[in-house]
Prior knowledge:
Shape: globular
Strand content: 15-25%
CATH topology: Rossmann fold
Largest sheet: 5 strands, parallel
Number of helices: 8
Number of domains: 1
Order of helices and strands: EEEHEHHEHEHEHHH
CATH class: Alpha Beta
Helix content: 40-55%
Low-confidence stretches: 1-7
CATH architecture: 3-Layer(aba) Sandwich
Number of strands: 7
Amino acid sequence: MFSADKTVSGVLSGLDLFVGGPIQHAIRPDGFTVALQETIQLALSTLGGHGAHLFSAHTVEEFGDRTAHYTPEQVAARDLRWMSKCDVFVPVLPVGADGVLMRTDGTHVELGWATALGRPIVLLTRQPVVESASHLLKGLPVIGDVQLLDIDRFARSPFLLVECVLRATQRQREAVLSSRLAVHA
């Protein structure tokens, strides 16, 4: 696993990524859902390890330990600010042992924001998308810039997430390079 404070490569340098997923419905009496925490930590360390700047409520709220310290208004304002600043939204939508998508109202709101703001989305969830997912979630790739990455494939090969982010930002990175070349011409 990559360390978030140690850059393996800078291929994602200059990119702001918002990593989201369930928090409130992932907090159990014995703590945060372990498998989800491990998946989100792997996503954060993989992306951060390749130079990305990360926005993450899971980090700020310490995987639920500090969630109660924030008001709903603070969370909504913070997350909308992050969505407005990010280059790519990376939501993690886990599926429980019962085959049902874990409830995550906030992440679904963020998916709407990302789509409305034209942000590319790299969605980490089971593939094919489970039957319990809403029609809106299943239909999102038709109207938004959405790449689907199977959560189990990601766990086996974390660099797949980096590749998806690079594909999602290819046009943006080419435009930046083109403008830099024009300045030096």
